[in-house]
Amino acid sequence: MLIASALGVAATWVLITVVLIGLGSVLLKLFEIDLSLIDAFWMGLAVSIAILEIWNLLLPVTGSATALLFCFGILGWITNRSVLWNRLSLGLRTSRWLILLQIAVVLFLALRAVGPCIHYDTGLYGASAVRWILTYPTVPGLANLYGRLGFNSSAYLCLAALDTGVWKGLSFHLFTGYLMAAMCFTILPACVRVARRCPKSAADWFQCVLAIPLIFWVLRGQIVGAQTDEPATIACLVAVAILFEELAKDGDRLQESPRGRLVVAAVLFSLAVTFKMSTIVFAVIAWCLTLGRLHFIKQPARDRKLSIAGALVLSTIILFPWCLRGIILTGYPFYPATAMGFPVDWKYPQDAARLYVALVHSWGRNPDARIADTQGYLWLRGWLHQAIRNRSPIQVPLVISLAGLAVAVVHRLRRKRVSSSRWLLILVPSLAGVVFWFLASPDPRFGQFAIWTTAGTLATWGIVSVDGGVSQGRYVSTVLAGLLGLLLWCLISFGWKQPYQSMLAAKALLPLPKVSLTVRQTSSGLKVYLPLQGNQCWDAPLPCTPYPDDTLRLRDRENMRWGFASEGRPDLLYRY
């Protein structure tokens, strides 16, 4: 039964991939961008989310939305069938070992996706957010019911779109593992070239470093649930890998560069912001860097203008409806930030939102402390003590970064050739992202995209400063052995048995846990559900909140579709 369920997951992923490639090919063709299957896939993912954002402004995300995406995907295959089939045939003629490795990764992730959902935030608010999307169009003032329901992650739209047919109530098994598999398909070719001692460029080394966190997530990460950190990180890392590869090209290769890759990178940076607001500083700076590269790349003026227009238009159709959803949910386009709030009657109270930001800061510094105990710099010692024990998020990227920087600096002091390639510009968004992460909420899982981008860039700088990093022989083997040793250091840490024990015990796909509920009535007469124990609603009936506000009321006494309003009770936020 376990194997049959895993094969069902893998078959569903194949179908989704076909649809997204077809959908992405329509957009790439529209802007006269060179087609490749992997670029068409990522473009299709971004555009499908934009469609779901617009759909949910007017309607709940049901099987009709899924059917629409399916039709667009099939239309793309019909319209671009000759090009797509040629690309598919070319892909199948690549290394047989690479194809077998990619299939093995997909099947392994599908097997892991069968396990039960133990992701805490899914029960806290993720499952409830998906249920609201499935039941209603975007609900005005939903954050007034529960502040976390104002988190406007487009990952929840994807889960809602997958929640149809045989996957009704089971979509949380599909999404995160699927994106991990997609990232594997994107960077594995570069890793295989390095493993064969024949890296083509610095970009291969950069992607090889990014394989360390990816393999850790594949083997150790939580992939069942309504995660937002992993999808946002994957979107950032795939985009920055594309940008790195384009910046690493020089000389005559610039003229041959498929400009579409940079458009895809720009779109993915925009998508990352809609997955998780914490990526905004990193993604915005990297997006600007990508647009600048599109402007200066050697190509005819018409192609340059079309490329820039593609990046601007496609980013806009992703970000604009996302901001509009945020305004409807909370009254703010970038909640929990209170900047640019709109004067609407459902707006989440500003004092409560500011206090919520303070709680996010405090939680990232010390989850068990009060806000007052995490002010100033007194929290730093305790944070360092805890953070340095995290191998994959902190220890390993720190070691890689320092080693790469040290090698590059030593070669500079010895007046040897040190790479001064354009791809070092990637340090600008990555270091800015690290600073923003540390100041905003320095929990390690919130900054993986910036931390690993910094590590990959500095490591590559150190590697190529020795002999260009593309020669064959003992040097490549030595670097590979070091990276492999660091990967093993991540993997052998405690806690690796529990996910596999849960998976084997499940034996089949399980729905979300059920919780015992009680009913609380607010002063307006509105009845809300509360979990009897803990603060997780999971997939409880609507409306459910672990922290009811006595001033909460319906904007329309007859229908929750028109949302909620409240006067706000900031004191309740201390209980978050």
What does this structure look like?
This protein has helices spanning 2-30, 37-58, 63-79, 81-92, 96-112, 120-135, 155-162, 175-195, 202-220, 229-248, 253-256, 260-275, 280-296, 301-330, 350-365, 379-387, 391-413, 427-440, 448-467, 474-491, 497-506, and strands at residues 517-521, 527-531, 553-554, 564-565. With 576 residues, the protein is mostly helical. The protein has two domains: 2-358, no CATH class; 517-575, no CATH class. It has a two-stranded antiparallel ribbon with strand order 1-2. A two-stranded antiparallel sheet has the order 3-4. Strand 1 and strand 2 form a beta hairpin. Helix 8 runs parallel beside helix 10 and helix 10 runs parallel beside helix 19 (448-467). The longest helix is centred in the middle third of the chain and has 30 residues, at 301-330. It starts with a helix and ends in an 11-residue tail after the last strand. Residues 251-257 have low confidence and may be disordered.
